[in-house]
Write a structure and sequence with these properties.
heterodimer, A: mainly alpha, B: alpha/beta, Rossmann fold, four-stranded antiparallel β-sheet, 10 helices, globular, binds adenosine-5'-diphosphate, binds magnesium ion
């Protein structure tokens, strides 16, 4: 299937039309959930950090610093990937799966369309391109959430901002972007695979979509471990 | 004309088609009838290359489908219109885009040329001015009509229909059947229709092949069908009380 998926589309205009559709479906429609989740995670992380650093030996700016580090290093990329595996993964698998069981994929094939590349490639491109944008958004919103959390814990804005900028390591952002790009590829390709090889009826579409979420989450977690080991250790 | 010779097809241990041979003639509606699960859909999918055969040949006016190279196959595919059982309309496109899609894939026509052809086809199936409807907004009968329009948009020489009136009420079913027949005769197309619906058989059965136990066990036309003394065929055709009475008249 990989070979078939990555063969070059015959009609470029048709490919770009699909790609635009996918960007909207996969990317734009995830903005809401990403914003909400990132905000609350940011807030909770900063409150908990503040709670744990209550002793006067620690300078207050450490709270901003710790919030930033945990968001960039782990919470944003991994949590986000798991949530998107649920949302985007099940969406991809059920969409392709229902096209399979309603013979739409057969119809594409007999019209001389390479259905794997026509359906799957735009989805992979769209996730790989858009997830990094989502992650930047997520970190930003997460930090705003962290700041709001600090207000409730009585930390001043100035010390939070100082903490955010304290010993900033740009590589961590690169690391985070690498992770999310890999996760994006895993989620879209694994889910497409389960959708594409659905056979049967509506029930089987549901089954494929569940499998897509479970397998892409597990593979994301495994790669999270491997990448962390590889890039940071 | 489409000719199939000695077709064999198994799924694992399930020998679905055993030595099927038949000639589907031009300008006629050729019917394949048989119970559910008798292999009608499988045969149709074999004809368009969606299933590989174990043995045998499929000849489109002498061209052996399975011996063609990919370029020749692509050319032949443009000559084949297919009406899938569930319609198989692309649900991410509207009516007009669905019908236009084969034109986009197979030709280099301008948008104006394409839209003109699309409108012609919509008129042909009596759905003019419904261009921008979504697929989810269509009734069962409309789905079949749009599928027919999409199947004929490239002016095919062959038209293959899998249970074109499944899931329709009797009146709509007959309208769809007659639409298919009319198109076949007017455009001189070789049409194959799968069905287990006796109304369609009586309505449009120019040439009929009855599949039973993986083999063609009877052939003829709709008049001959009424006179037949093939027992299995009679059990199948005259399964309902209504048709039993009809036979006794
Ligand atoms: N893709 C497939 N894999 C395995 N078995 C199949 C497949 N498609 C059809 N069959 C089997 O082939 C037989 C004929 O099915 P089908 O051609 O759909 O019958 P019909 O269209 O006449 O109702 C059935 O026993 C069915 O289970
Ligand atoms: Mg069938």
């Amino acid at each position: 299937m990989l070979n078939k998926t990555f063969s070059f589309p015959e009609k470029k205009s048709v490919f770009f039309k699909q790609f635009n559709l996918e960007l909207e479906k996969i990317g734009l429609n995830s903005l809401g959930i990403v914003t909400i989740i990132s905000f609350f995670i940011g807030a909770v992380v900063s409150i908990q950090t503040a709670f744990n650093f209550e002793s006067p030996i620690y300078p207050k700016y450490l709270i901003g610093y710790a919030t930033r580090e945990s968001l960039i290093l782990e919470f944003c990329p991994t949590m986000l990937a798991l949530i998107l595996a649920g949302k985007v993964g099940s969406n991809i698998a059920s969409e392709i799966g229902s096209m399979r069981v309603t013979e739409q994929i057969d119809a594409l094939e007999i019209m001389g369309v390479n259905s794997a590349s026509f359906l799957i490639l735009p989805k992979i491109f769209a996730t790989v391109l858009f997830f990094p944008i989502l992650i930047i958004l997520s970190i930003t919103i997460g930090l705003i959430g962290g700041w709001v959390g600090c207000q409730t814990a009585g930390i001043t804005t100035a010390s939070f901002l100082y903490g955010i900028k304290y010993e900033f390591n740009a590589f961590y952002v690169t690391y985070c972007l690498i992770k999310i790009t890999v996760f994006a590829f895993i989620i879209s390709s694994v889910s497409s695979y389960f959708g594409y090889y659905t056979n049967g009826g509506a029930l089987d579409v549901g089954r494929s979509s569940t499998k897509a979420v479970v397998y892409s989450s597990i593979i994301v977690l495994i790669f999270n471990f491997l990448l962390t080991d590889l890039l940071l250790a | 004309m489409i000719e199939i010779n000695n077709i064999h097809k198994s799924f694992g241990d399930n020998h679905v088609l055993k030595n099927i041979s038949f000639k589907f003639e031009k300008g006629k509606t050729n019917l394949i009838i048989g119970e559910s699960g008798s292999g009608k859909t499988t045969l149709l999918r074999i004809l368009i290359g969606l299933h590989k055969i174990d043995k045998g040949e499929v000849l489109y006016d002498g061209r052996d489908f399975n011996q063609l190279n990919s370029k020749e196959k692509r050319k032949l595919r443009q000559e084949i219109g297919v009406l899938f059982q569930k319609g198989a309309l692309y649900d991410f496109m509207n009516v007009e885009e669905n019908i236009m899609f084969p034109l986009t894939m197979f030709t280099n026509q301008s948008y104006e040329e394409k839209i003109e052809r699309v409108n012609n086809c919509l008129e042909r199936v009596n759905l003019q001015n419904n261009n921008t409807l979504k697929i989810s907004e269509l009734s069962g009968g409309m789905i079949k009509r749009v599928s027919i329009a999409r199947a004929i948009v490239l002016k095919p020489k062959y038209l293959l229909c899998d249970e074109p009136n499944s899931g329709l009420d009797p009146k709509t079913a007959i309208i769809i059947d007659n639409l298919i027949k009319e198109i076949s005769v007017e455009d001189d197309i070789t049409t194959i229709v799968n069905t287990h619906d006796m109304n369609s058989v009586m309505e449009i059965g120019d040439s009929i092949a009855y599949i039973n136990n993986g083999q063609i066990s009877w052939t003829g036309n709709k008049e001959e069908l009424l006179q037949s003394n093939n027992e299995q065929l009679n059990n199948f055709v005259f399964a309902s009380k209504l048709f039993k009475r009809l036979k006794n008249i």
